[in-house]
Amino acid sequence: MSIDLTNPIFHDDAAAREHLEAQRWPHGPECPHCGEKRAEAITKMEGKAHRTGLYNCKSCREQFSVTVGTVFERSKVPRAKWVLATHLMAASKKGMSAKQIERMLGVTYKTAWFMMHRIREAMSIDPKRDGPIGGDEKIVEADETFVGGKSTNAKKGKPIPTKYPVMALVERGGEVRVKAVPDVTGKNVREALFTLARRESMLVTDEASVYYHPGKEFLIHETVNHSKRQYTDFCGFAHTNTVEGFFSLFKRGIMGSFHSVSEAHLQRYADEFAFRYNYRKVDDATRANAILKAAKGKRLTYRRPDKAQDA
Ligand SMILES: [Zn+2]
Fold it and tell me: Which pLDDT score is estimated for 238?
Protein backbone atom coordinates (compact mmCIF):
# COMPACT_ATOMS: atom_id res chain seq x y z
CA MET A 1 0.00 0.00 0.00
CA SER A 2 1.46 3.35 -0.96
CA ILE A 3 -0.51 6.05 0.76
CA ASP A 4 1.13 9.23 2.02
CA LEU A 5 -0.86 9.67 5.23
CA THR A 6 0.66 13.14 5.75
CA ASN A 7 -1.25 14.42 2.71
CA PRO A 8 -3.64 17.18 3.96
CA ILE A 9 -6.52 15.64 1.96
CA PHE A 10 -6.67 12.95 4.67
CA HIS A 11 -7.02 15.27 7.67
CA ASP A 12 -7.85 18.81 6.56
CA ASP A 13 -11.45 19.42 5.57
CA ALA A 14 -10.75 22.23 3.09
CA ALA A 15 -8.02 20.19 1.37
CA ALA A 16 -10.31 17.15 1.24
CA ARG A 17 -13.13 19.24 -0.26
CA GLU A 18 -10.81 20.73 -2.89
CA HIS A 19 -9.60 17.23 -3.74
CA LEU A 20 -13.19 15.97 -4.12
CA GLU A 21 -14.02 19.00 -6.28
CA ALA A 22 -11.02 18.37 -8.53
CA GLN A 23 -12.14 14.78 -9.08
CA ARG A 24 -15.82 15.49 -9.63
CA TRP A 25 -15.53 18.78 -11.48
CA PRO A 26 -12.27 18.86 -13.46
CA HIS A 27 -13.72 21.72 -15.55
CA GLY A 28 -15.28 23.72 -12.69
CA PRO A 29 -18.39 23.25 -10.54
CA GLU A 30 -21.60 21.87 -12.04
CA CYS A 31 -25.01 22.24 -10.43
CA PRO A 32 -26.23 18.74 -9.45
CA HIS A 33 -29.82 20.01 -9.38
CA CYS A 34 -30.17 21.37 -12.93
CA GLY A 35 -26.89 20.53 -14.69
CA GLU A 36 -25.80 24.18 -15.05
CA LYS A 37 -22.07 24.43 -15.63
CA ARG A 38 -21.48 27.92 -17.00
CA ALA A 39 -19.00 29.64 -14.69
CA GLU A 40 -20.98 32.91 -14.74
CA ALA A 41 -24.09 31.11 -13.42
CA ILE A 42 -22.39 29.50 -10.46
CA THR A 43 -21.00 31.52 -7.60
CA LYS A 44 -19.13 30.42 -4.55
CA MET A 45 -20.87 31.55 -1.39
CA GLU A 46 -18.81 33.75 0.87
CA GLY A 47 -18.59 34.14 4.63
CA LYS A 48 -19.14 31.17 6.85
CA ALA A 49 -20.68 29.14 4.04
CA HIS A 50 -17.51 29.64 2.01
CA ARG A 51 -15.59 27.36 4.33
CA THR A 52 -18.02 24.50 3.81
CA GLY A 53 -17.75 24.78 0.04
CA LEU A 54 -21.30 25.90 -0.76
CA TYR A 55 -22.12 27.11 -4.25
CA ASN A 56 -25.14 28.99 -5.51
CA CYS A 57 -26.72 28.25 -8.88
CA LYS A 58 -28.31 31.28 -10.55
CA SER A 59 -30.25 29.09 -13.00
CA CYS A 60 -32.25 27.08 -10.48
CA ARG A 61 -31.46 29.14 -7.36
CA GLU A 62 -30.43 26.05 -5.45
CA GLN A 63 -27.33 25.67 -3.35
CA PHE A 64 -24.99 22.73 -3.48
CA SER A 65 -21.65 21.40 -2.37
CA VAL A 66 -19.40 18.77 -3.93
CA THR A 67 -21.01 15.90 -2.02
CA VAL A 68 -24.59 16.58 -3.14
CA GLY A 69 -25.79 13.70 -5.31
CA THR A 70 -22.94 11.39 -4.28
CA VAL A 71 -22.61 8.48 -1.88
CA PHE A 72 -21.07 10.94 0.59
CA GLU A 73 -24.18 13.13 0.76
CA ARG A 74 -25.80 13.91 4.11
CA SER A 75 -23.04 12.39 6.14
CA LYS A 76 -21.75 13.84 9.37
CA VAL A 77 -18.42 12.16 8.78
CA PRO A 78 -15.77 14.78 7.88
CA ARG A 79 -14.88 14.76 4.20
CA ALA A 80 -11.20 14.09 4.98
CA LYS A 81 -12.21 10.80 6.59
CA TRP A 82 -14.22 9.85 3.51
CA VAL A 83 -11.20 10.55 1.34
CA LEU A 84 -8.95 8.48 3.63
CA ALA A 85 -11.39 5.54 3.82
CA THR A 86 -11.67 5.57 0.02
CA HIS A 87 -7.88 5.53 -0.42
CA LEU A 88 -7.48 2.71 2.10
CA MET A 89 -10.09 0.58 0.36
CA ALA A 90 -8.63 1.33 -3.06
CA ALA A 91 -5.13 0.35 -1.98
CA SER A 92 -5.89 -2.74 0.07
CA LYS A 93 -5.54 -5.74 -2.24
CA LYS A 94 -7.30 -8.16 0.10
CA GLY A 95 -9.91 -5.74 1.40
CA MET A 96 -10.14 -4.23 4.88
CA SER A 97 -12.45 -5.06 7.73
CA ALA A 98 -14.73 -2.47 9.27
CA LYS A 99 -12.70 -2.99 12.47
CA GLN A 100 -9.56 -1.78 10.70
CA ILE A 101 -11.34 1.28 9.30
CA GLU A 102 -12.84 1.97 12.73
CA ARG A 103 -9.36 2.07 14.28
CA MET A 104 -7.65 3.99 11.50
CA LEU A 105 -10.35 6.67 11.19
CA GLY A 106 -11.33 6.97 14.83
CA VAL A 107 -15.02 6.47 14.07
CA THR A 108 -17.49 3.99 15.56
CA TYR A 109 -17.77 0.50 14.16
CA LYS A 110 -21.23 1.22 12.78
CA THR A 111 -20.02 4.34 11.03
CA ALA A 112 -17.05 2.47 9.56
CA TRP A 113 -19.35 -0.32 8.33
CA PHE A 114 -21.76 2.12 6.77
CA MET A 115 -19.00 4.19 5.14
CA MET A 116 -17.50 1.08 3.57
CA HIS A 117 -20.80 0.04 2.06
CA ARG A 118 -21.27 3.51 0.60
CA ILE A 119 -17.79 3.38 -0.91
CA ARG A 120 -18.58 -0.10 -2.30
CA GLU A 121 -21.64 1.43 -3.90
CA ALA A 122 -19.37 3.91 -5.69
CA MET A 123 -17.22 0.93 -6.78
CA SER A 124 -20.19 -0.96 -8.23
CA ILE A 125 -20.60 -1.50 -11.95
CA ASP A 126 -22.25 1.40 -13.70
CA PRO A 127 -24.08 0.13 -16.81
CA LYS A 128 -23.60 3.55 -18.41
CA ARG A 129 -19.84 3.37 -17.99
CA ASP A 130 -19.08 -0.34 -17.81
CA GLY A 131 -20.66 -2.26 -20.65
CA PRO A 132 -20.34 -5.97 -21.41
CA ILE A 133 -16.80 -7.34 -21.74
CA GLY A 134 -15.30 -9.26 -24.64
CA GLY A 135 -15.90 -8.78 -28.34
CA ASP A 136 -14.21 -9.75 -31.59
CA GLU A 137 -11.11 -11.85 -31.01
CA LYS A 138 -11.48 -11.45 -27.25
CA ILE A 139 -11.37 -14.42 -24.89
CA VAL A 140 -13.82 -14.44 -21.99
CA GLU A 141 -13.46 -16.96 -19.17
CA ALA A 142 -16.57 -17.67 -17.13
CA ASP A 143 -16.87 -19.66 -13.92
CA GLU A 144 -18.89 -19.87 -10.76
CA THR A 145 -17.83 -20.44 -7.19
CA PHE A 146 -19.29 -20.54 -3.72
CA VAL A 147 -18.24 -17.84 -1.31
CA GLY A 148 -18.81 -17.75 2.41
CA GLY A 149 -17.49 -18.77 5.76
CA LYS A 150 -15.51 -21.88 6.54
CA SER A 151 -16.76 -24.15 9.29
CA THR A 152 -13.50 -23.65 11.20
CA ASN A 153 -14.36 -19.95 11.51
CA ALA A 154 -17.75 -20.60 13.03
CA LYS A 155 -17.81 -19.98 16.75
CA LYS A 156 -18.79 -22.86 18.96
CA GLY A 157 -22.49 -23.49 18.98
CA LYS A 158 -23.07 -21.25 15.97
CA PRO A 159 -24.24 -22.63 12.66
CA ILE A 160 -21.72 -23.12 9.87
CA PRO A 161 -21.89 -20.04 7.62
CA THR A 162 -23.70 -20.72 4.37
CA LYS A 163 -21.88 -20.36 1.10
CA TYR A 164 -23.44 -18.41 -1.73
CA PRO A 165 -22.82 -18.69 -5.46
CA VAL A 166 -21.05 -15.98 -7.41
CA MET A 167 -20.43 -15.92 -11.15
CA ALA A 168 -17.48 -14.16 -12.70
CA LEU A 169 -16.60 -13.43 -16.30
CA VAL A 170 -13.11 -12.18 -17.10
CA GLU A 171 -11.87 -10.88 -20.40
CA ARG A 172 -8.31 -12.12 -20.69
CA GLY A 173 -6.08 -9.07 -20.29
CA GLY A 174 -9.18 -6.97 -19.59
CA GLU A 175 -11.92 -6.45 -17.06
CA VAL A 176 -13.98 -8.68 -14.81
CA ARG A 177 -17.75 -8.68 -14.26
CA VAL A 178 -19.12 -10.34 -11.14
CA LYS A 179 -22.67 -11.30 -10.28
CA ALA A 180 -23.99 -12.88 -7.12
CA VAL A 181 -26.69 -15.34 -8.17
CA PRO A 182 -29.33 -17.01 -5.98
CA ASP A 183 -28.57 -20.42 -7.54
CA VAL A 184 -26.38 -21.78 -10.31
CA THR A 185 -29.21 -22.62 -12.67
CA GLY A 186 -29.26 -22.65 -16.46
CA LYS A 187 -31.45 -19.56 -16.43
CA ASN A 188 -29.20 -17.55 -14.11
CA VAL A 189 -26.03 -18.57 -15.91
CA ARG A 190 -27.54 -17.74 -19.28
CA GLU A 191 -28.67 -14.32 -18.12
CA ALA A 192 -25.27 -13.52 -16.59
CA LEU A 193 -23.40 -14.63 -19.72
CA PHE A 194 -25.57 -12.68 -22.12
CA THR A 195 -25.73 -9.45 -20.15
CA LEU A 196 -22.09 -9.34 -19.03
CA ALA A 197 -20.25 -10.50 -22.17
CA ARG A 198 -20.53 -9.88 -25.90
CA ARG A 199 -21.51 -12.93 -27.93
CA GLU A 200 -18.76 -12.30 -30.53
CA SER A 201 -16.33 -13.38 -27.78
CA MET A 202 -14.60 -16.74 -27.51
CA LEU A 203 -15.93 -18.29 -24.33
CA VAL A 204 -13.99 -20.65 -22.06
CA THR A 205 -15.68 -22.49 -19.19
CA ASP A 206 -15.47 -25.80 -17.40
CA GLU A 207 -17.67 -28.66 -18.55
CA ALA A 208 -20.60 -27.83 -16.27
CA SER A 209 -23.81 -28.52 -18.17
CA VAL A 210 -25.19 -25.03 -17.42
CA TYR A 211 -22.73 -23.60 -19.96
CA TYR A 212 -23.55 -26.01 -22.76
CA HIS A 213 -26.55 -24.32 -24.40
CA PRO A 214 -25.69 -20.63 -23.86
CA GLY A 215 -22.11 -21.47 -24.93
CA LYS A 216 -23.36 -22.27 -28.43
CA GLU A 217 -24.36 -18.64 -28.92
CA PHE A 218 -20.81 -17.42 -28.54
CA LEU A 219 -18.32 -17.36 -31.42
CA ILE A 220 -16.48 -20.35 -29.96
CA HIS A 221 -17.04 -22.23 -26.73
CA GLU A 222 -14.03 -24.09 -25.36
CA THR A 223 -14.31 -26.24 -22.25
CA VAL A 224 -11.84 -27.39 -19.65
CA ASN A 225 -12.18 -30.65 -17.77
CA HIS A 226 -10.47 -30.04 -14.44
CA SER A 227 -10.78 -33.53 -12.99
CA LYS A 228 -9.31 -35.30 -15.99
CA ARG A 229 -6.92 -32.45 -16.80
CA GLN A 230 -8.19 -32.64 -20.34
CA TYR A 231 -8.71 -29.69 -22.58
CA THR A 232 -10.80 -29.44 -25.70
CA ASP A 233 -8.16 -27.09 -26.89
CA PHE A 234 -8.69 -26.52 -30.58
CA CYS A 235 -7.18 -23.06 -30.62
CA GLY A 236 -4.73 -23.13 -27.72
CA PHE A 237 -6.58 -20.86 -25.35
CA ALA A 238 -8.64 -23.29 -23.28
CA HIS A 239 -7.88 -22.57 -19.66
CA THR A 240 -9.73 -20.75 -16.94
CA ASN A 241 -6.69 -19.64 -14.95
CA THR A 242 -7.62 -15.96 -15.14
CA VAL A 243 -11.08 -16.28 -13.64
CA GLU A 244 -9.78 -18.78 -11.08
CA GLY A 245 -7.10 -16.26 -10.11
CA PHE A 246 -9.76 -13.62 -9.53
CA PHE A 247 -11.84 -15.99 -7.42
CA SER A 248 -8.84 -16.98 -5.36
CA LEU A 249 -8.08 -13.32 -4.52
CA PHE A 250 -11.74 -12.65 -3.77
CA LYS A 251 -12.06 -15.68 -1.49
CA ARG A 252 -8.85 -14.97 0.38
CA GLY A 253 -10.09 -11.41 0.92
CA ILE A 254 -13.47 -12.57 2.16
CA MET A 255 -11.90 -15.09 4.55
CA GLY A 256 -9.17 -12.75 5.76
CA SER A 257 -11.09 -9.54 6.23
CA PHE A 258 -14.72 -10.45 6.56
CA HIS A 259 -14.71 -14.07 7.81
CA SER A 260 -18.21 -14.50 6.52
CA VAL A 261 -20.60 -12.53 4.37
CA SER A 262 -24.34 -12.39 4.25
CA GLU A 263 -26.14 -13.03 1.00
CA ALA A 264 -27.60 -9.51 1.08
CA HIS A 265 -24.15 -7.91 0.87
CA LEU A 266 -22.27 -10.41 -1.26
CA GLN A 267 -22.73 -8.40 -4.45
CA ARG A 268 -21.19 -5.34 -2.78
CA TYR A 269 -18.08 -7.25 -1.68
CA ALA A 270 -17.83 -8.71 -5.17
CA ASP A 271 -18.08 -5.20 -6.64
CA GLU A 272 -15.25 -4.03 -4.40
CA PHE A 273 -12.90 -6.78 -5.57
CA ALA A 274 -13.97 -6.38 -9.20
CA PHE A 275 -13.27 -2.64 -9.10
CA ARG A 276 -9.74 -3.14 -7.79
CA TYR A 277 -9.16 -5.83 -10.40
CA ASN A 278 -10.36 -3.59 -13.21
CA TYR A 279 -8.06 -0.79 -12.02
CA ARG A 280 -5.14 -3.12 -11.24
CA LYS A 281 -2.84 -1.52 -13.82
CA VAL A 282 -2.92 1.96 -12.23
CA ASP A 283 -1.36 3.18 -8.98
CA ASP A 284 -3.24 3.33 -5.69
CA ALA A 285 -3.95 7.07 -5.84
CA THR A 286 -5.35 6.87 -9.38
CA ARG A 287 -7.55 3.93 -8.34
CA ALA A 288 -8.81 5.87 -5.30
CA ASN A 289 -9.58 8.91 -7.43
CA ALA A 290 -11.52 6.69 -9.84
CA ILE A 291 -13.77 5.74 -6.90
CA LEU A 292 -14.24 9.39 -5.95
CA LYS A 293 -15.20 10.20 -9.55
CA ALA A 294 -17.65 7.27 -9.58
CA ALA A 295 -19.26 8.44 -6.32
CA LYS A 296 -21.41 10.80 -8.33
CA GLY A 297 -24.95 9.78 -9.12
CA LYS A 298 -24.92 6.85 -6.75
CA ARG A 299 -26.70 7.17 -3.48
CA LEU A 300 -27.56 4.43 -1.10
CA THR A 301 -31.12 4.49 -0.01
CA TYR A 302 -30.82 2.07 2.85
CA ARG A 303 -30.18 3.41 6.30
CA ARG A 304 -27.76 2.38 8.97
CA PRO A 305 -27.96 -1.32 9.61
CA ASP A 306 -29.56 -2.53 12.81
CA LYS A 307 -27.39 -5.57 12.67
CA ALA A 308 -23.98 -5.11 11.15
CA GLN A 309 -23.23 -8.79 10.94
CA ASP A 310 -20.59 -8.59 8.27
CA ALA A 311 -17.08 -7.99 9.54
ZN1 LIG B 1 -28.94 24.66 -10.83
Answer: 83
Query: How far is residue 250's CA from residue 273's CA, in Å, rounded to a whole number?
Result: 6
Highest mean pLDDT among 22-31, 248-257, 298-307: 22-31
**Number of DSSP helices (H) and strands (E) in the chain, helices first:** 10, 9
Cα of 30 from ligand 1 centre, angstroms: 8
C-alpha 31 to ligand 1 mean position (Å): 5
Q: How confident is the model at residue 310 (pLDDT cuts 50, 70, 90)?
A: very low
Q: Which residues, at least 6 apart from 250, have a Cβ–Cβ distance to it below 8 Å? A: 147, 166, 168, 178, 269, 270, 273
Task: Give the residue, 236 or 30, on which the prediction is more confident.
Answer: 30
Continuous segment of H or E residues that includes residue 6: none
Residues 6+ apart with CB under 8 A from 52: 17, 65
Distance CA 130, CA 175 (A): 9
CA distance 69 to 86: 17
Distance 26 CA to ligand 1 centre (A): 18
pLDDT for res 225? 79
For the segment 34-78, what is each residue's pLDDT rounded down to a tens digit?
A: 999 999 999 998 876 566 799 999 999 999 999 998 999 888 999
Cα of 114 from ligand 1 centre, angstroms: 29
> Separation of 153 CA from ligand 1 center, angstroms?
52
Query: Hey, what domains does the chain have and what are their CATH numbers?
Result: 8-127 (no CATH), 139-280 (3.30.420.10)
Residue 117 alpha carbon to ligand 1 centre in Å: 29
Mean pLDDT across the chain, nearest whole number? Answer: 87
